Amino acid sequence: MRIGAHLREDADPLATAEELGIDVFQMFVTDPQSWKKPEPNPHAAAIRDSPIDVVVHSSYQINVASLNNRLRMPSRKAVEQQAAAAAELGAFGLVVHGGHLRDGEDAKAGFDNWRKLFDRQQDKGGFEVPILIENTAGGDHAMARTLEAIDRLWAEVGDFDTAGFCLDTCHAWAGGEDLVGLVERVKAITGRIDLVHLNNSRDEFDSGRDRHANLESGHIDPSVLVAVAEAAGAPVILETPGDGVPDDLAYLRDAL
């Protein structure tokens, strides 16, 4: 199992990954709060050549499900651009949140928009890396909060070779999904888990709040988190508070 962490706003994430002794790291390729096109990374060649794997997390404002053209269209473009930037780094995927609709909007249209993302890109030769759709924590109109929603989403995108899945434990907990046996239930829908975001939660079950905690300090039993990591059989990324990441890595390595 390859274990690592998200390295936030790090000028040289590969050097930090080497210092931490991790097998895989997650990074942004642009300001996660903006629509800026990614710039060439000065460390791209070193990252590509390193034995340490890399995965890219997309910027947060992306919402390809949206029915609002002014949000959906730039979201599609941003996914295309950031997937290309991820490929330049040799990344094994681009993580994209499931997105959401507004009150009163038709959920079917949102799921259709996810299918159109892949359809339109296929006309351009497809995405350069897999798009790892991540389950989300809150919102009554989220595209990937519940297993029912993920099932509807996968009915639209599951046939595309570049559609993958990222399971976030804090998001699932906050979204009201029992973590015990969750891996099996997800795989029964998607057939795959390509990446695990292993995070504890600062909030109680089904809170709808996305606030990560270090592995041994949240409301989720740490042994349950370990069981999820073991069952998924996928690379594990910690998105826990930065000061506690070394301890989280040590705990997880020992537990596994």
From TrEMBL:
Keyword flag DNA repair: yes
Gene3D superfamilies attached to this UniProt entry: Divalent-metal-dependent TIM barrel enzymes
UniProt record, GO biological process: base-excision repair
Xylose isomerase-like TIM barrel domain: residues covered: 15-253
GO molecular function: DNA binding; DNA-(apurinic or apyrimidinic site) endonuclease activity; phosphoric diester hydrolase activity; zinc ion binding
SUPFAM superfamilies for this protein: Xylose isomerase-like (SSF51658)
Statement: the UniProt record of this protein carries the keyword GTP-binding: no
Family: Belongs to the AP endonuclease 2 family.
Official protein name in the record: Endonuclease IV
Primary gene name: nfo
